Amino acid sequence: MDYVNLGHTGLKVSRICLGCMSYGSSKWRPWVLDEEASQPFFRRAVEAGINFFDTADMYSLGVSEEVTGRALRKYARLEELVLATKVFNPMSDKPNMGGLSRKHVVQGCEASLKRLGVETIDLYQIHRMDPNTPIEETLAALDLLVRQGKVRYIGASSSAAWKFAQALSLSERHGWARFVSMQNHYNLVYREEEREMLPLCEAEGIGVIPWSPLARGLLAGTRKSLDDKQTTTRAGSDAFAATLYDNPHDWDVVEAVKKVASARGNTPAEVSLAWLLSKPAVVAPIIGATKMDHLEAALRSLDVKLSPEEVRALEAPYQPHAVRGF
């Protein structure tokens, strides 16, 4: 396993991040694995050298954090890992149970610490920007958590580039802890981040850790068409995916991936992830795995090196999209 710095920090992370949204309670989403079924994935990830794990408070409404914390304490040495979680989405329909107010950011962090069973969160991320809270309030709250030792680094997820740039500027002006990572929506089917967010992250030394690197499974090559909802449990129940990938040209990209993969003797998933890993700003795609081969394909992708001609073939069918994911 290769390890790289997360942006302009000294924090070493594996080139693959295991996303833990898939582990928790099927009562939250039908495709989520319960604690017992999730254990082999954590064990294999640690054995393979993965030291980067990402979850969020809203995944299974806290159960994902509990399952993740227990598994990592069982199979790994926490001091060697980078454990990431997120705050923003509502944990209930009651007041002050969502958003990025000082109150919710602080109490959300404290609740995550308890569920994870740790004293400090390595990477604490805002799941989205909060239009109802001044960004200064949120940044000051995150800085407080860093100064208190409850959080080591802070990151953000899917945002307009201008808002993210504004946050970085405010942190510098006030001497607050600064975002070190951006967890954004980026894959071969959705490349709008290349316009502004990725150049911003490269210029500012921000580590990019894309979510949905396989376009909610679309780039895994198992579906028969763009609107195929029968192949997997998630495909048939993931309403969010339908809002992300509905452009007929998206299937042209999938076909290009299949063609390159077939010619190389790799799987579409391996080729799609290798393409992401070839991008300078990308530190570690966040991989969701509910079957062991999902994880094994991600590990194999680390050894796939695409030629310039293959990259051009993969990118050629892409058509511009409306902004999706935030």
TrEMBL record:
A GO molecular-function descriptor = oxidoreductase activity
Task: List the keywords (alphabetical).
Answer: Oxidoreductase
Membrane-spanning segments = none
Q: Does the keyword Cell inner membrane apply?
A: no
Q: Which InterPro entries match?
A: AKR_Detox_Biosynth, NAD(P)_OxRdtase_dom_sf, NADP_OxRdtase_dom
A single GO cellular-component term from the record reads: cytosol
Designated name of the protein: Aldo/keto reductase
Species per Swiss-Prot/TrEMBL record? Cystobacter ferrugineus
Instruction: Specify the taxonomic lineage.
Output: Bacteria, Pseudomonadati, Myxococcota, Myxococcia, Myxococcales
